[in-house]
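The instructor's notes for this session suggest beginning with a concrete chain rather than abstract definitions. Hand out the sequence below and ask the class to guess, before any prediction is shown, which regions might be ordered.
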Amino acid sequence: MEEPTQATNVDISDPEVLFKEVHSRDFSTSSDSDAMEEPTQATNVDISDPEVLFKEIQSRVKDTPLYSSFLNVLLFINQIDNTQACSKEIWCTIEEFVRQEVTERDVRETDERGDFPLTTQPKDILPSITSPCSTGTLPPPPPPAPPPPRGQGTVETRLRPINTPKPKCKLKHVSWGKISSVDLIEKSVWIDILKMENEIEVNYDELETLYVDKERVTQKKRHSSCNKVTLLDPKKSMNVNIFLKQFRKPTDVIIDLLRAGDPRAFGVEKLKGLSKILPQQDEIDLIKTYEGSIDDLDEVEKFYHDLIQVPNYQFQIEALILKGDFYAQFTPLRENFKMLQTLCPFFFDNRSLKRFLRYALHIGAFLNKGRESGNALGIRMSTVEKLMDTKCSSGHTNLLQYIVKTSEQKDPEALAFVKTLLEPLQRASRFTVKDLTGEFFQLKGLVHSLNDQCEHVEPDVRVQFEDFLKKAEEDLKEVHRDLEKIPEQSTQLAEYFCENKNTFNLDEFLAVFRRLCEKINSCK
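After discussion, reveal the predicted structure:
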């Protein structure tokens, strides 16, 4: 069979080329101005210009899974031969089919307890398209549309939402963000859930009793002093003097401890304070140009004089601070990254979590039957807490409490995930990935900076810190490997729960599940 493109020489991979090919044809034999009904102009699109209208439609579906369907439609239309007698009938049938699908989609339900199909098969509505025309049958079907962009993993099979009966009365509304067939991808939790059998029987009559929307029904009815030499600014001298008294040691002893290079002799906090009162260059110049006796200097000036005699004193203080504080900062960072590495896999293939979400989806599908938020194939996890907002008619309980209560009675295993996830989720709530990452790179920057400086200091100073800096570099590399795995795990979670990878926030996702687990525990 000859490929369709060979007959027309049209580039089927370019929608604009396809459109121009169709638009360039003579429709005089199949047009009927009296039968044409002008569509209502609902947007600011100039409907009198076919190219403008085409580009508006193309812009809506471009870079989405719907793009392949859009291209398929153009491929079929491109093969309609306007010289055939049946072409007018085909065009009219296409127009009528599209009009019905857009304006009469709410009339699809035929059985009180039937499904809402995701799509209507065109073969049931367009029998005339496949029937022979006076000059022959339609050309063979076009080749398959180009696959969606790599990585989307869009579901090709048509899955149906959970089948529920139509409520006998108006019910409370679950305000969740639903996942449609367009958003659904393979290897997601919702694919597994939709394929599951109902392990917990839903009591529809009980739900109608507990969650009847009485308020909605009602609304429808209505609406010195020792002659010592001072060289420094008096305020600066006072502040430094106050700080030095915290050491409770003579200044010469402080200088000797600094030379020894042991941070435990000071304590990290005192070393940090010392780094803030170091002499500025103009103060160093004053001390160096002093020609009198050192013993005549005031305490602060004498301390500064002795300090600047220490080789690389600024480096030593910075290195002592890092050496004394490094593992106090590094160890929690390492533990938190490791915890994230072990926490994220708990969400994948969690049988208990799937059973809970299946039960919640089933109940919500019943309550939302016939509404815009109905026919949900999954739930946006950012809106799962809406279960708490749906109160029963008496106002005494909410939907989450009902789900927890009935799960305890009928399937306690559906709540077992709470015991596994709650404790690590509560630990994870003490930090954010952004803060952890910032702290890590700040610590890494300090180590790298001191490593570079260490190459240019005196040998006796360098030897004090070489081993520490080498070990710190190795530990940082290990944690960096864990850090690099987080974006990958975040993307995997977004795909698994059919969330938007570009806007997915791991911290928010974990916070939602923490609050959900805490609320489930409080409902028990």
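Then share the key points. Residues 459-496 form the longest helix (38 residues). The mean pLDDT is 78.
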